[in-house]
Amino acid sequence: MYRIYPLFFFVCGVFGQISLKGECDYATTNYTETVNLTQMYGTWHQISRIGNKMEIGDCSTLTISKPEGSGDTLFSHSEVFNKTELTMNGTIGELEDSPGWLLMKFSDFSLNFVMLSTKVPGVAVIYSCHAFQNSTKQVWAWQYNRNATLSSEERDTLDQIITSQPDLKDAAWRETNHTSTVCGNAGVRLPTPQVLTVLALVFLAKEFV
User: Fold this and answer.
1) Residues above pLDDT 90, as percent of the chain
2) φ, ψ of residue 87 in degrees (nearest 5)
3) Which of 59, 108, 109, 161 is 20 to 30 Å from 87 by CA-CA measure?
4) Cα dihedral value 66, 71, 72, 78, nearest 10
5) Half-sphere exposure of residue 205, counting CA atoms within 13 Å on the CB side?
6) What separation in angstroms does the CA of 187 have from each of 79, 81, 82, 182?
7) Is 206's pLDDT higher than 50?
8) If we measure between CA atoms, which residue out of 58, 54, 47, 46 comes closest to residue 18?
9) Computed from CA positions of residues 200, 29, 139, 7, in that sequence, does the dihedral angle turn out positive or negative?
10) Residue-number span of the structural domain to which 112 is assigned
11) Average pLDDT rounded to a whole number, residues 143-148
């Protein structure tokens, strides 16, 4: 079982992200090379994340959609902090000449990510690794589910996914609170600062295949 901590753990680097020794190894990461964006539509509830300075709240969700008449697929990240809803919006699409890689575009920066499939629909783990200085790497990760709570099968699946990824199995995780006490009292919606930064996402969800 991987560890979940109630508070952020120590982070470092230019974006306040954990830094580990070694190089990123996507060659051994089994990601899906055929992506169907329409199967990603809808709301995903964040179960937990590796702490980062860009996300500060709870009740976190990621919603993906393509409004009628829109040429772009859109996403919206939402979280609640100090009884205030914070949001950040952008577009999502496939990267040309890079099978399996997608691109999130915000107003002032962009994110690359890939996705891995799992046998349980509606479960996703987001993983990011970027080369940093002095033979180190910076790592981001999130766990998502279609529901705010997990079944035993979904929890077991997430455990298996995390323990199979060397960068994640020994990481400290910050559990996301989705209780009505925290999420039911959100007030004015405000745009967030840069909640997410330069990262690659590894979605592990059968629904995406």
Assistant:
1) 31
2) -135, 155
3) 161
4) -50
5) 25
6) 12, 10, 9, 11
7) no
8) 54
9) positive
10) 3-208
11) 94
CB 78 within 8 A of CB 63: yes
At 206 the three-state DSSP class reads: helix
Residue-by-residue DSSP string for 22-58: S---GGG---BSS--GGGG-EEEEEEEEE--SS---E
The residue whose two tokens read 């070694």 is 22
CA distance 205 to 121: 6
Q: CATH number of the domain that 183 lies in?
A: 2.40.128.20
Q: Which amino acid is residue 172, in one-letter code? A: A
Residue type, 143: Q
End-to-end CA distance of the chain: 27
Q: Which one, of 76, 62, 48, 58, lies nearest residue 184 by Cα?
A: 58
Token digits of residue 73: 């697929």
Residue 12 pLDDT: 37
> Does residue 30 have a pLDDT over 80?
no
Tell me which of 31-35, 125-129, 174-178, 194-198 is least confident: 194-198
- What does the block give as tokens for 188? 């004015």
